Amino acid sequence: MNTNAFDIGKTVDVDYAVIADAKTYLQALIDTGETLPAGTWLKANQENKKNWDARLDQLAKDDSKGLNPESVTAKIAELAGPNDTYAVDTGNVSEWGVRGLPMNKNQRFAISGLFATMGFGLPGGLAGALSVPDAQAWSLSGDGGFAMVEQDVITEARYELPVINVVLSNDRFGFIYYEQAETKQHFYGVDLTPADWAKVAEGSVGSALLLSPSTN
Ligand SMILES: Cc1ncc(C[n+]2csc(CCOP(=O)(O)OP(=O)(O)O)c2C)c(N)n1
Fold first, then answer.
1. Which spans in 61-116 are helix H?
2. Do residue 12 and residue 91 come from a single domain?
3. In 58-202, where do the E strands start and end?
4. Taking Cα atoms as reference points, which of 90, 165, 95 lies closest to residue 129?
5. I need a surface site. Which of 36, 106, 154, 191 has the fewest CB within 10 A?
């Protein structure tokens, strides 16, 4: 289902194509009043989803190995307002964002879907603040993606766009590190020199905070 016919069947063959806005179409389906009995597939996946949510909650509470990304997204979920915007960078951080950021109200989520361009998060946050000025704009980046465009925080300050930029630092190109690990390659070009991005931002605009498990 897509509003753009060109995108249908592009990456996977489809049995049944619908050219429509998902929200409108799903509502129209619900409005038919027709239902199917819950089969084993549905029940198994409802159970999977319950287990998965419990697992994410468990990780969010576990700081035994440092600050988990799940703890960070759980905190954002707690603070996020109904119209907030999230701009999420490319990398493992994309997965953390998809898993942890609430999209249950009128929040909007932007990601570099087609090109997977690193460095998308910070300017995306700026766009969020400009697009929905009466809500909180968030950006979520890995340290690699943030390092590419860090100077954009100066632009945010210049135009008084109060974006909350969250940087998940793991001192590596995490996504590529795991790709190399999974495909049993030697690690090459995936380690980043540790930098305190909170201090860099503080030097640029005056305020930033380094979070760790000991930060309340
Ligand atoms: C401009 C650009 N360069 C390289 C890549 C390939 N790439 C995809 S994810 C990634 C690593 C991202 O690292 P980081 O921003 O630190 O986030 P993490 O995966 O650690 O969460 C790289 C190099 C890309 N998608 N875009």
1. 69-79, 92-100
2. no
3. 85-88, 108-111, 137-142, 164-168
4. 165
5. 36
Q: From the CA of 82, how far away is ligand 1's center (Å)?
A: 29
- pLDDT digit string, tens, across residues 25-75: 999 999 999 998 999 999 999 999 999 999 999 999 998 988 999 999 999
Tell me how far apart the alpha carbons of residues 62 and 71 are, in angstroms, rounded to a whole number.
Answer: 8
Report d(CA 112, CA 31) in Å as an integer: 34
CA distance 170 to 67: 10
CA distance 164 to 176: 26
Averaged over 74-95, what is the pLDDT?
97
Ligand 1 pocket: which of 67, 118, 149 to mutate (most atoms <8 Å of CB)?
118
| CB 134 within 8 Å of CB 111 | no
> Does residue 61 lie in a domain region?
no
Q: How far is the CA of 55 from the centre of ligand 1 (A)?
A: 26
Residues contacting ligand 1 via CB (< 6 Å): 89-93, 116-119, 142-145, 168, 170, 172-176
For the domain that residue 171 is a member of, what is the CATH number?
Answer: 3.40.50.970
CA 95 – ligand 1 centroid, Å: 12
- Do 86 and 176 lie in one domain? The reply is yes
Q: pTM score, two decimals?
A: 0.88
What is the residue with the minimal CA distance to atom 4 of ligand 1? 118
Residues 81 and 133 in one domain: yes
- Relative to the CA of 141, which ligand 1 atom is closest? 15
